[in-house]
Write a structure and sequence with these properties.
The chain is of the alpha/beta class. It has 2 domains: 166 residues, Medium-chain alcohol dehydrogenases, catalytic domain (Quinone Oxidoreductase, Chain A, domain 1, Alpha-Beta Complex), CATH 3.90.180; 139 residues, Rossmann fold (3-Layer(aba) Sandwich), CATH 3.40.50. The protein contains 10 helices and 20 strands. Its main location: other.
């Protein structure tokens, strides 16, 4: 085996490429030769700020949690995977069989392992060990890159499930970054009849239009939340049943509440400041439900079915590709907001997408 080149964050602003030992899988693990790993906004945030909320980088940490790879070693107790299998990695693995695990909401378990969340290492490296139960075999017609994109796609699935999107639902998505775009794709796949999407960037909204948005709307920072809500209502012909807020911006959260029809649902996906001023009484008297989203759970099988059947096409999301050796340039590209999704290719010998 060759060396285990890894992308390691040592402290705020200190990102390094370094060799680490190749891990040995335990009885319930598999060792993966990583293939495609996407860069997430959270990876860049840790790099630039050294923390996200209460999660602080205190020791060197391997980044990366949007990943797919090939099984090269199998733990003694693993039965459902074999050497050579191509798999997508679900980065959140519960450590305890607590009440959240038992109720199927393991993403809320306080002790969960999660790739590239301090102090847990991620998978932006050549070789990575992971729980076999959280590695999902990819069908032959699903590429490695699509496998890596299941992680952001899962955020969209979880958000749309929490929102109750179904046949005939009208939806507003606030923000057309990678997460806003996957929420758009999933909402359409789940039967949403009309989807409006907002962003400050007309470039990003072009991609949203290509991916099936019915009403892309450019907003300006000086627009009031009520003005944006009024414009959205005018485009859709009525207030949306569901608003999925993906920016974390206070004004956008305010828009989400004002625009959603009475009895509808606002789902908060984007993370902003801990405290936000929102028109809560407006939501209360109109029975608008406000629901949070924390990552995802039980989404990988559905995502794989969506990709394999062709119901969802995530391929256009990948706009930049870099070899693992050029990780710092790849991170810089993401930090500058260029393109949509930057993908790192960890396997020098495998040219498959």
């Amino acid at each position: 085996m060759d060396t285990n080149l890894s992308v390691v964050l040592h402290a705020q602003g200190d990102l390094r490429l370094e060799e680490r030992p190749i891990p040995e899988p335990g009885p319930n693990d598999v060792l993966l030769r990583m293939h495609s790993v996407g860069i997430c906004g959270s990876d860049v945030h840790y790099w630039q700020n050294g923390r996200i909320g209460d999660f602080v980088v205190k020791q060197p940490m391997v980044l990366g949690h949007e990943a797919a790879g090939t099984v090269v070693k199998v733990g003694s107790a693993v039965r459902h995977l074999s050497v050579g299998d191509r798999v997508a990695v679900e980065p959140g693995v519960p450590r305890d069989m607590d009440e959240f695990f038992k109720s199927g909401r393991y993403n809320l378990s306080p002790s969960i392992f999660f790739c590239a969340t301090p102090p847990d290492d991620g998978n932006l490296c050549r070789y990575y060990k992971h729980s076999a139960n959280f590695c999902y075999k990819l069908p032959d017609n699903v590429t490695m890159e699509e496998g890596a994109l299941i992680e952001p796609l899962s955020v969209g699935i979880h958000a749309c499930r929490r929102a109750g999107v179904s046949l005939g639902t009208t939806v507003l998505v606030c923000g057309s970054g990678p997460i806003g775009l996957v929420c758009l794709l999933v909402a359409k796949a789940m039967g949403a009849s009309l989807v409006a999407i907002t962003d400050l960037s007309s470039e990003r909204l072009k991609m949203a239009k290509q991916l099936g948005a019915d009403f892309p709307l450019v907003v300006a920072k000086e627009d009031t939340p009520q003005e944006v809500a009024h414009r959205v209502e005018g485009m859709l012909g009525s207030q949306p049943h569901v608003t999925i807020e993906c920016t974390g911006a206070e004004s956008s959260m305010q828009t989400a509440i004002y625009v959603t029809r009475s009895g509808g649902v606002v789902v908060l996906v984007g993370l902003g400041a801990e405290m936000a001023s929102v028109p809560l009484v407006n939501a209360a008297v109109r029975e608008v439900d406000i629901r949070g989203v924390f990552r995802y759970c039980n989404t990988w099988p559905m995502a794989i079915s969506m990709l394999s059947s062709g119901k969802v096409n995530v391929k256009p999301l990948v706009t930049h590709r870099f070899p693992l050796e050029e990780a710092v340039q790849a991170f810089e590209t993401t930090r500058r907001g260029q393109g949509v999704k930057v993908m790192l290719k960890c396997d020098q010998d495998d040219q498959e997408l």
